[in-house]
């Protein structure tokens, strides 16, 4: 069984035979679904649910990082209404609507915090570029007039970041990618020059999880970042712990944060109270 995208939408095949279809049209940021049909011989076997689920996946309906809105015609009967309700479609006026907002994650909270507090930043730094999510965010925040530096010690991270920037339409000249440790940040940035610096510790997504950041280099990098920040600048750091990574880095960084002098810094540790203790922990330092 496989799904094929067509000019009109999607077709579901069993072997070489089409057994289902769904039309899809994008209009003003919404995806309108219509004409959902299953061959009667294949109904009540879960294939209709499979078809709709795959269509939603293909069109970003389950993307945790992006908002989405799908619409469909009102159902003809109770059974059809129950089917659409399984996928969070609900009546609104003369149509069904499925809205999904991005989940609030530690990384998104860090991004939202910087976006809310930094106005027209001139220099932003992604100290752990990883897969490029924070780098792309910083490029958009800096705009055409700002500068972005992105550090990582893994060539695969820089390659992933470069590909993501291209995929999101961010010009190459908007960001300088640096293959070096974030602990060497002072060699690239003058003291007091940076408006915002982001750290997302842990490991590179999709890579070997035994290769991850550690307190021995992370704390010197954080200290260097504070020197690079201007007064009023913000440092964000997302800390991780778990079975593979342990919690030594997390605890060491928390102790370091708690020891920063109040006369020079405001420190926030934003724990998600109903998440597990091993959940990512977003932290912020505002330089006075």
In terms of topology, how is this protein built?
Blueprint: E1 2-5, E2 9-14, E3 17-27, E4 30-38, H1 47-58, E5 68-73, H2 78-85, E6 90-92, E7 95-100, H3 106-117, E8 123-126, H4 133-142, E9 147-152, H5 155-167, E10 175-179, E11 194-200, H6 215-228, E12 229-239, H7 248-258, E13 265-269, E14 281-287
Parallel strand pairs: 4-5, 8-9, 8-11, 9-10, 11-12
Antiparallel strand pairs: 1-2, 2-3, 3-4, 5-7, 6-7, 12-14, 13-14
Helix pairs in contact: 6-7
Which shape, going by the Cα principal axes? elongated
Order of helices and strands: EEEEHEHEEHEHEHEEHEHEE
How is the CATH topology of the largest domain named?
A: Rossmann fold
Please tell me the CATH architecture of the largest domain by its name: 3-Layer(aba) Sandwich
Uncertain spans, ≥5 residues at pLDDT below 50? Answer: 206-212
Strands of the widest sheet, in order across it, are: 1-2-3-4-5-7-6
Q: SS-based structural class?
A: alpha/beta
Q: What is the tally of helical segments? A: 7
Mean pLDDT: 90
Helix proportion of residues, in percent? 25-40%
Note the beta-strand portion: 25-35%
How many domain modules? Answer: 2
DSSP summary, beta strand count = 14
CATH superfamily of the largest domain: Vaccinia Virus protein VP39
Q: State the CATH class of the largest domain.
A: Alpha Beta
Give the distance, in angstroms, between the N- and C-terminal Cα atoms.
60 Å
What is the gyration radius calculated from CA atoms?
A: 23 Å
What is the makeup of the main sheet? 7 strands, mixed
